[in-house]
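Lab meeting, item 3. Inverse folding demo.
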């Protein structure tokens, strides 16, 4: 069984792995951070929010303080997540699933199939 976790991520409750919703590429175990299985790019925020005026105070972000970090599926190249983090910040772990829910769900699914026979 597959459970939608975000609009881009699916948790496979049998293999216990993250999958891309678009191409079903495996992104690693659901017990770990799916971002470890992604292609990661960092961008200067000024690529998106250009300075409006000249000078230090220019209504844009300072690239020495912030980066746009993008997470892509290695299978299809879909953009899965975007974050704004300070340069050198470790990966954030934003989704932690209760794996006992999957175990209970799989055993309930099996017992309902057994009783139907
Ligand atoms: Zn994909």
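The presenter then showed the designed sequence:
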């Amino acid at each position: 069984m597959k459970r939608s976790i975000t609009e881009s991520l699916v948790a496979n409750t049998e293999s216990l792995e993250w999958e891309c919703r678009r191409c079903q590429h495996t992104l690693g175990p659901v017990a770990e951070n799916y971002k470890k299985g992604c292609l990661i790019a960092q961008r200067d925020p000024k690529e998106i929010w250009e300075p409006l005026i000249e000078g230090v105070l220019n209504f844009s972000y300072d690239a020495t303080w912030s980066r746009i970090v993008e997470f892509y599926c290695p299978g299809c190249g879909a953009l899965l997540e975007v974050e704004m983090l300070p340069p050198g910040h470790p990966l954030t772990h934003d989704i932690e699933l209760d794996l006992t829910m999957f175990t209970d769900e799989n055993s309930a699914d099996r017992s309902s199939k057994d009783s139907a026979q």
